[in-house]
Amino acid sequence: MKTVAECEALVMMGEHQHASHHGPQKVIGPLSGKTINIPDVNRPPMPALAPSGVIHNGRTAEHFGEIDSSRGYPDVRSFRRKFGLIVPATNTSMEHELWSIIGRNPQTLRGVGLHTSNVITPKPTLETEADLLEYQKQFLGGLKAAVDTALLAEPQYMLMGMSLEHILCGIEQVKEPMAEIEEHSRLPWATWHEAVVAALRKYQARRIGILTPFDKKGNEHATRMFQDLGFEVVASVGFSCANALHIAHVPDWAKEKAILDMLATRDNALDAVVQCGTNMSLIDVAEQLEPVIGMPILGINAVIFWYALRETGIQGAVVGAGRLLQEF
User: Fold this and answer.
1) What is the value of pTM for the model shown?
2) Is 83 helix (H, G, I), strand (E, B) or coil?
């Protein structure tokens, strides 16, 4: 275990490495091929101090080493990459899963931080098609406000923590609101429909089975999106959760049973299992079952995070969240 002094030295090393490179960065996303503009969030003066500077007992601390804000100190915790995460207010899983991945990889993901903003969805009932339309209205209507809140933390890259194919039918309908919100935010985004294509291509997968918390209509929407993206949905399982909040309560044993008994069967001959629904945790299930079924299990949260990390230049094997983050 590192001493406090050692930890402080590591932080100072990170500060030194990042302080001398001011100005936005332009990188080519290795998965998308897009030019990604990563803003400089450490531009001087950072941190800005009031004119009196550091005070001790109400008076200027004359002999205190000056914080030279002209050099631009980085965020002490998120000095490597500051991600903004947008999730519905009912979602209790995605942020937890991503922090779990960071916690399981303290060296590889050191200096990576998440800064979450909720989309207000006060009526999360999903029992009927009318409920689904109302939920769509709530989410899309509140998306801009949630993004504006996230931008107050000056993130460098955004993650869309929502399975938009649940509430929108067809890839063009899914792309439309994301194009608008990307333009509004002026930041690059990791989206499910782009991340999952990149992940499936890594495995040269075409025949897939999908696991979702959705009902019949939601699964039809998800199937349509994957078909539009060029994949064959051989089999699908949806848990028909009647409330968006309750998605997080689907037990792991039920997910395992669905994968083993209804998706990853010999007759289906899948190339990959794909899971939709960001409030349905899957990293532990994927870790346990991938060696058993001999194929990738691509959970939405791990895939979106993988895409965001790789697109912004953070490489290295990441453990504890399935094969994708370890192998690519």
Assistant:
1) 0.90
2) strand
